[in-house]
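Ticket opened by: R.M.
Priority: normal
Category: complex prediction / small molecule

The reporter submitted a protein together with adenosine-5'-diphosphate and asked that the result be attached to this ticket for the collaborator who will pick it up next week. Submitted input follows.
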Amino acid sequence: MSAVCAPRTRRLLRLVAPRLTAAMLRNYSLDVSAAPLLRTQGYVDGRWVSAASVFPVLDPATGQEIARVSDCGPAEAKQAVDAAYKAFESWKRSTAKERSVLLRKWFDLMTLHKEDLAKLITFECGKPMKESLGEITYSASFLEWFSEEARRVYGDIVPSPVRDRKIFLLKQPVGVASIITPWNFPSAMITRKVGAALAAGCTVVVKPAEDTPLSALALAELAEQAGIPAGVFNVVPCSREKTPAVGQVLCTDPLVGKISFTGSTATGKVLLKMAADTVKKVSMELGGHAPFIVFDSADVDRAVAGAMASKFRNSGQTCVCSNRFLVQSGIYERFVDKLGQAMDAELRLGHGSDPQTTQGPLINSRAADKVLQQVSDAVSRGATVLRGGKRLHGSFVEPTLLVDVSTDMLCTREETFGPLVPVIRFETEQEALAVANSANVGLAGYFFSQDVSQIWRVAEDLEVGMVGVNEGIVSSAEAPFGGVKESGLGREGSKYGIDEYLEVKYMCLGNLNP
Ligand code: ADP
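Result attached by the on-call engineer:
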C-alpha cells in the first residue's frame, strides 16, 4: 500500500494509526467470575443441555478464547423444534395480556442486567462498550415494544355482500419460528424477531451466529428468570461446521411454520430455497449497500456528523452502514476535508473495554481481508488513500478514506462491512440517483440536502426500504426495518413487525336468516 501513497498521505496515515500492540490488548480479558450471565450450554425445553462436543468463542480483539460452548447438532435442533411445537399448543392459548406481562418482565431484567449483557457483546463481538450498552438498550426496546403490541392484535369484521352471512377475520400465530441471527448485533437481532414472535403467540428456536452465542444464551437465562414457559424460547448454538446441518433442520422440518433470518444475501438465498419445499412463511433481512449522498445544498457539518455516525458504528459492520459516498462537486472538497478531520479527531482503535475506544476489531480476519482487498482494488484502479488503508494488529483495520473513486471499483459494487469510506464525485441529482439505484440490493439510504423539493424527490426515488434525510442513524423499535430488492422480505419492529408471525384466517358465518 505504501508504494501507492504520496508522502503527504503517509504523514496522514500516522495520524489515524495510534499504536496498537498485542501487549496493549492483552490487558483486557473476560473475568468469567464477574460474568453472571455467561452460559455455555444450549437451552432446549427450559433445560440447559450439553452437546457431544464444544466450540470456542474468541475475543476478536485478542484472539483469546473466552468460552467453550456446546456445539449443538441436528439432534439438538430437532429436540428444540419438537419442544417448541409442544409448547406452542399452550402458548398460543395464553392471553395477549399474559404474554405481554412476561415480555415486559424480560425487558425489565435486560435493563437491570444491561452492564453484564453489554460486556458479553464487547468480548464476543468486539464492539466498544458504549456501543454495546447502546445495543442492549435497543435490544430491550423490542421486548418493551412488543409487550405493548401483543395487546393490539385486532381482527376485523367485514361488511358481507350476502344478507345472511357475516365475515370475520381472525389473526392467529403462525406456529414454530426458526430464528437465525448474525454476529454484528448479537442481542438486538434476536429480540427484534423473538419479541414479535412471542407477542403473536409463536414459539421459537434461535440459532445464533457461531461467533456470538453468549449474548443469545444470556437472553435465555433472563427469559427463564422472567418466567417464559419451557419450550417457548429455545437456543441451539453451534459451530460453523455444524451450521448447515442445524440449518437444514430449522428450515425444512414440517413442524416449523416460519423462518426469520438476518444475515448475508448469499445465505438468505440458501435458506429461501430450503424453505420452499415446505412453503414456509419467511422474513429475510439481508445485505445492504447504502448510498450516502451529499448534495450541494447540504449543511456540510451535519453531513459529516451523519457520515461519521452511519459509517463507523461497529467499525462499519452493520447492514445499514453507508457504503458508497456520493458527493456533489460544489461541496466535495469541503466535505472530504472535514470528514478527514473528524476521522482524525474522533476515531480511536482499541479493545472495546477501553473507554477511549471508538473502533474495535473486525469480527475475524476474513472480514479484514475483504476490506483490504477492496482498498487495493480501488487503488489499482486509480483511487487515492487519504486516511488509513492498512491492517493493524489481528483483524483491526484503520478507518480509511478513499477519494477519486469510480463505479467500476469493488468497493462501490459490493457491501464492505468495514471502516471504509469510498467517495465518488457527481454533478447532477439524476446521476447520483442512477448510481445509488444501480445496486441489486436496497436496505438503507441517506442523503443530505436543504432543498425541500429535492428532499421529497430523492426520498421517493431512492430504491431502499429506509431513508435517512439529514440523518445518519434511523433505527428504532417504533419504525419498520427492512429492505427492497435483494435486501429482503418483510419488516421488523413497528406495528408491522408482528404481522410477520400472524396468519389471517377468514371465517364466514353463514345461514344466519334461514
Ligand atoms: P456471515 O458471512 O457474516 O457469517 P451469514 O449470512 O453467513 O453471514 O451468517 C448469518 C447467520 O446465518 C449465522 O447465524 C450463520 O451461522 C447462519 N448460517 C450460515 N449458513 C447457514 C445455513 N446453511 N443454514 C443455517 N444458517 C446458516
